[in-house]
Amino acid sequence: MPSLKDLRNRITSVKSTQKITKAMQMVAAAKLRRAQTAAESGRPYAEKMSATLGNLAANLVGGVGAPKLLSGTGADKTHLLIVCTADRGLCGAFNSSISRLAAKHARQLASEGKTVKIFTVGKKGYDMLRRQFRAEIIENIDIRGTRPVDYAFASEIAEKILARFDAGEFDVATLYFSAFKSVISQIPTAQKLIPAELPDAEGKTTTGASADAAMEFEPSEEGILDTLLPKNLTVQIYKALLENAASEQGARMSAMDSATRNAGEMIKKQTQIYNRTRQAMITKELIEIISGAEAL
Amino acid sequence: MATFHFDFVGPERTLYSGEVQAVQLPGTEGEMTVLPKHAPVLTTLKVGVITVTETSGSGKRIYVQGGFADIGPESVTVLAERAAPIEEVNPAMLDKEIEQAELDRDATTDLGKREQLNAQIVQLQEAKKVLAF
């Protein structure tokens, strides 16, 4: 039976924990709004980019002489998994669900006899994957210090990946991140980056010019593709990072909300025990006094 | 006078969207002015200044650093990687960029990259001249 003092201490400690989780929830809510606006204002660029690329790729019939970034190296031996997570924890299953998806795919690829390489963005994903895939991880970038995520950070990552691709270190690249659906639902997603997965150009028109209209290109079509494809990589990574930022805050918000609620329940239960024990003590003391008086 | 729709989109946000009469773009193969009913062209952009004419006589100038333009008969979309209103750009900033590019050029041994950076330096110097007046 814990003493009254123990119980009191326990209640105070749960109360201060509750204060922290409540504050974190509110901070996450504020940050979520900002992250959501950032994700929304970044969307037109990504959409226009992939629509244009889709048109271009459709025009490039047969894909003969298509850049490697678009058509792949032709091989399917070495896979690069780019795993984007957060730098901080306390956000529910956010980090672990992304890492778990990546780990699952990595094991599957390995069992098919393919070489797997892992590139992690964010400290948490690195920490989780490091245990199982120490040898496979080739690089890790922390997000810390570049908050909120900006385009320059995305292009820094893209450059590193491109350099490795040009060096022939891998054939296929897949990006892992968490798509933001709503505050309570974030979906871990795998997206193929190289070879580029493009939307069907059919039925889509960019800026009023249909895909089959004779387009002029300055410089040549290949020249434009050569500059656009690396940019597209950056844009896709940037988009993933923005989605991740929103997902992280959403996950943290709901995790902290339930933590606050659990703390409230705990306080209620402990207070009840505390009061009951206090009453029992008083009754016991009274009985002692009365029986002492009676004995006289 | 006829107008067309002009969108100017940066990776982080949309910077300009509206009906305009003409747009002057710094294409990689030369400056070009786009008027309504232009033939569809896709062009990459160099470092330079975009001039937007909303109504005759008034112009808005935007500094742009790389990107591309998708031109159609009814609308023009510019996707720029870096952009700023002309008032926010000063020669000192460009000087810094040129210096950085030169440093990068001297540091690399890759010939292709060297050429690329050289072209970039030339572009930046041109942009400086354009900004000067």
TrEMBL record, chain A:
Chief place where the protein resides: membrane
Subcellular location: Cell membrane; Membrane; Thylakoid
Coiled-coil residue windows: none
UniProt keyword annotations, A-Z: ATP synthesis, Cell membrane, CF(1), Hydrogen ion transport, Ion transport, Membrane, Transport
Pfam families: ATP-synt
GO cellular component: plasma membrane; proton-transporting ATP synthase complex; thylakoid
Molecular function GO terms recorded: ATP binding; proton-transporting ATP synthase activity, rotational mechanism
Single GO biological process annotation from the record: proton motive force-driven plasma membrane ATP synthesis
InterPro entries per UniProt: ATP_synth_F1_ATPase_gsu (IPR035968), ATP_synth_F1_gsu (IPR000131), ATP_synth_F1_gsu_CS (IPR023632)
Membrane disposition: Peripheral membrane protein
Gene3D superfamilies: 3.40.1380.10, ATP synthase, gamma subunit, helix hairpin domain
NCBIfam families, sorted: ATPsyn_F1gamma, PRK05621.1-4
Function noted in UniProt: Produces ATP from ADP in the presence of a proton gradient across the membrane. The gamma chain is believed to be important in regulating ATPase activity and the flow of protons through the CF(0) complex.
Matches recorded under PANTHER family: ATP SYNTHASE GAMMA CHAIN, ATP SYNTHASE SUBUNIT GAMMA, MITOCHONDRIAL
The family this protein is said to belong to: Belongs to the ATPase gamma chain family.
Quaternary organization: F-type ATPases have 2 components, CF(1) - the catalytic core - and CF(0) - the membrane proton channel. CF(1) has five subunits: alpha(3), beta(3), gamma(1), delta(1), epsilon(1). CF(0) has three main subunits: a, b and c.
UniProt protein name: ATP synthase gamma chain
Gene name of the encoded protein: atpG
From TrEMBL, chain B:
Residue ranges occupied by any ATP synthase F1 complex delta/epsilon subunit N-terminal domain in the UniProt entry: 4-83
Gene Ontology MF annotations: ATP binding; proton-transporting ATP synthase activity, rotational mechanism
Topological type in the membrane: Peripheral membrane protein
Family listed: Belongs to the ATPase epsilon chain family.
Record HAMAP family: ATP_synth_epsil_bac
Subunit relationships: F-type ATPases have 2 components, CF(1) - the catalytic core - and CF(0) - the membrane proton channel. CF(1) has five subunits: alpha(3), beta(3), gamma(1), delta(1), epsilon(1). CF(0) has three main subunits: a, b and c.
Name of this protein: ATP synthase epsilon chain
